[in-house]
From TrEMBL, chain A:
The chain crosses the membrane at residues 39-60. Residues 72-93 have a biased composition (Polar residues). Residues 63-115 are annotated as: Disordered. The lineage of its organism: Bacteria, Bacillati, Actinomycetota, Actinomycetes, Micrococcales. Keywords: Membrane, Transmembrane, Transmembrane helix. It comes from the Bacteria. This is Uncharacterized protein.
TrEMBL record, chain B:
Residues 102-153 form the RNA polymerase sigma factor 70 region 4 type domain. Residues 19-80 form the RNA polymerase sigma-70 region domain. Signal peptide: none annotated. Gene3D superfamilies: 1.10.1740.10, Winged helix-like DNA-binding domain superfamily/Winged helix DNA-binding domain. Belongs to the sigma-70 factor family. ECF subfamily. GO terms for molecular function: DNA binding; sigma factor activity. InterPro entries: RNA_pol_sigma-70-like, RNA_pol_sigma-70_dom, RNA_pol_sigma-E_actinobac, RNA_pol_sigma70_r2, RNA_pol_sigma70_r4_t2, RNA_pol_sigma_r2, RNA_pol_sigma_r3/r4-like, WH-like_DNA-bd_sf. One of its GO terms (biological process) is DNA-templated transcription initiation. This is RNA polymerase sigma-70 factor, sigma-E family. It comes from Pedococcus cremeus. Keywords: DNA-binding, Sigma factor, Transcription, Transcription regulation.
Amino acid sequence: MSDTHELDELLQRATAPHMHFDPAAAIATGRRVRRRRRIATAGGALAAVTAVGIAVTAAVPGSAPLLPAGPSKTSTASPKPTGSAGPSATQRCFPSDAERGTAWAGGSAKGSQRGGKVVVEATVREGCGEDVVGVGDLGGDAQVTVMFKAAPTSAQWVVADAAVLFLPKGQRPCGYSFGTDLPAPTTLPQANGWDLVIQPVPSKLLRKAAATGTVDLCEGSTPVTRGLKQIGWNGPGTQWYEDHKRNAATQGSGTATTGCDLDTLVGSTVPGAVQWVDETLTIPGAGRLTVDAQTHPGCTGDGHTSSWDPTQRAARLEVDVPAVPTKGFWDTVWMGGDAPTGVFLVPPGQSLCDIDFSRSGLKATPKLSAPQRVSLRDGWTLVAQPLPRVDNMQTLSASFCTGKEVTTTGVTPSS
Amino acid sequence: MSRQRDLDEEFAEFARGAAPRLLKAAWLICGDPHQAEDLVQSVMVKVYLKWSRLREGSPLAYARRCLVTTHIDTHRRTGRETAVAETPELGSWDRSWDDTDEVVRLLATLPLRERQVVVMRHYAGLPEAHVAELLGISVGTVKSSASRGLTRLRQALHPTVDVPEDARSAEVREGNHV
């Protein structure tokens, strides 16, 4: 092969076997991933999503990613049945593009987290089981889609990129629970006699606002509503949350809740999902590493997903577990270059005391660089340990110790 | 909503156009058509997620980068590779290359890094500097990897040709990759 052109020709002429690629599937999966990231960004409490719901919305061509928002404040629907993950997709109502509903309110204003405008489109879709809120990316603008199951009769609001409020004429927001020094809102009068208010939310407040934010409403200077929760609020105190909590307590974690198997429920959250870990570290020579772990009471299994963005040099590890584990565990995250980083979650009072390379094929025990440690509020410790390159990470195992005593040994990576 | 639909259609058009070559590159690198399909599917999802930014730039370059990095990631996580029991005995350049397995078997004799370099240089036709950036290695490493890869392929094609010592030692060092 004196001439490399021969190799070029060899590779070019090689007839590849028939292989298939489906752009629609890539788009559907991309929407699902995007939705998960958005849920995480918004604090995970914005909406409840079932696997069924994801599949159905993802399959709607040309539709914005949508999040079923749980029971509306005005809902008269019966509580979700105990022991299930909620109503079926049909009940939740993910309409096709052909069923666009009746336009109810809309408009746009500056103030998107993406730098552009917040574009709001609200429709009424008779027959839907519950209200649905979605956020889409319009290349710098945020598309907030709200589908009401019935025309609202009282004020409604939600934090989705910005705070979006639908208010009867004469009412105005006069206090938010998540902050006081907010940018000026934009009020857009609607043909139906209501006002659409778009309130930009500083990014540092967004997570808190989406997760727990409430608003006070006034007419003139007189308060008419205090602490109004958002569309789809499903936290403590709601029927859905209490049903789910009771279900989890009575059935135990060993019983799968339909549609709530975390092994398969990638990209979703359920009522009462709680952020457990949300930490970002900088790994020298590699990039940023974000660890995002959520607990999902009542679910079964566990989900571990990592991704690497070479353009941002940023990795993200997402862990979904039914509850805070009782034993230490770890995952590997590839961050470009030659070697991965081990991400260890160490229980309170314990330490990561050993990583066993004896089955890795390495000829000698490698000398590891210094790990980074972050103490979590609940006593757990997050340890990020750059690891050497090995062919199969599952050949590595970790031990956790209490003092000098080995507590757990032979722990292989979860993913 | 219509803007999003336009972006999706634009992405789909790009994906349909780029997929054949990416699939073939993926197949040459990983040696298995099903794995190649999985690889390209996950690459395209990554491209889709950044489409609003990539559409004005070089989405194909990003896709290539993702292809390589995702393959490395998959390789390290699962150790999945097409096993090659022995180097195929290939007669000469004049033989028919309709036997697709032979090409892949030939490439599979190369360690992972060399295979990636060879495919990106000689199938994708990327300059050395671009391959270096793509793989996160130096231009010198690209050159040496390409050289070793070519030497090894030459040996596979023409068994009478001697393999230089540096290529042999590299094979010992990295031989457990495939």
